[in-house]
Amino acid sequence: DEAGADAVVADLDEVTVRTGDRRMSQLPDALRALADGLASRRPAVFFDFDGTLSDIVDDPDAARPVVGATEALQKLAARCPVAVLSGRDLADVVKRVGVPNIWYAGSHGFELTAPDGTHHENEAAAAAIGVLEEAAGRLRDELGGIAGVVVEHKRFGVAAHYRNAARDRVGEVLAAVRAAGRRDGLRVTTGREVIELRPDLDWDKGKTLRWVIDHLHEAGSGALTPVYLGDDITDEDAFDAVRADGVPILVRHGDDGDRATAAQFALDSPARAAEFTDRLADQLSG
């Protein structure tokens, strides 16, 4: 259908070919990075939540950290800086992870809390809160008749989840959200069976990560090696941000086929990510 064709063209417009990217299947296991002495390089470790600390589930509200992930995070946080950067609302991701004394960023970094509880919010993004609320209401009206579609209104975003929708209705969902983005001057991003609106600002997980690293440096941390674990297209910004001086690690999956990524290492599941985290904590304590 025409809406579907428009959505496909829009998707192709977003694809950029970058030198140095490799296919997911070609990446070496991240446990090799541990063997190569990562623990001796003073890591600061950043995690995505959905698909990295938690399995991807049909109902986003049912997502929980995989067995062992919370304990591994707590263990690691006692030995080095730890942060969770999520597309979820800040309060939501804090509640789901529940580990104290770490950094949390919600809405792809538009709001953060530091380990001491200090709250930081992007003022320019806050100006879009009303527009996002209106966009969420309109999209619920437009997409409410499509079975399996969930429109999630977040403080700094609107996400349309279509994992449970019929494949012949997906183009309609994509087209509606893209039209809303054009109408309301909002940025459109895509992920694993989700399309999202957010404030049209030059801010993402990569810039959030560098902001946290700068903050740690200013607090006297000394040199740090940033490590980022993520699974989705929105995590590529963070992979890019750590590629030169850190360790970008993809948590593999099959949702996007064998896509290209800026990551340099991979883990095969959130369970393996929890194992990696636990082993790194053990090495740091040694």
Describe the structure.
With about 290 residues, the chain is an alpha/beta fold. The protein folds into two domains: about 30-120 and about 205-285, HAD superfamily/HAD-like (Rossmann fold, 3-Layer(aba) Sandwich), CATH 3.40.50.1000; about 125-200, Trehalose-6-phosphate phosphatase related protein, domain 2 (Alpha-Beta Plaits, 2-Layer Sandwich), CATH 3.30.70. The chain is built from ten helices and 14 strands. The protein has an eight-stranded mixed β-sheet, with helices on both faces. The longest helix has 16 residues, at about 270-285. This is Trehalose 6-phosphate phosphatase. GO terms for molecular function: metal ion binding; trehalose-phosphatase activity. It catalyses: alpha,alpha-trehalose 6-phosphate + H2O = alpha,alpha-trehalose + phosphate.
Task: Give a brief rundown of this model.
With 286 residues, this protein is an alpha/beta fold. The chain has helices at residues 2-14, 31-35, 69-77, 90-97, 123-126, 129-143, 170-184, 205-218, 236-242, 270-285; strands at residues 22-23, 43-47, 82-85, 103-106, 111-113, 119-121, 150-154, 157-161, 186-191, 194-199, 225-230, 247-251, 260-261, 265-267.
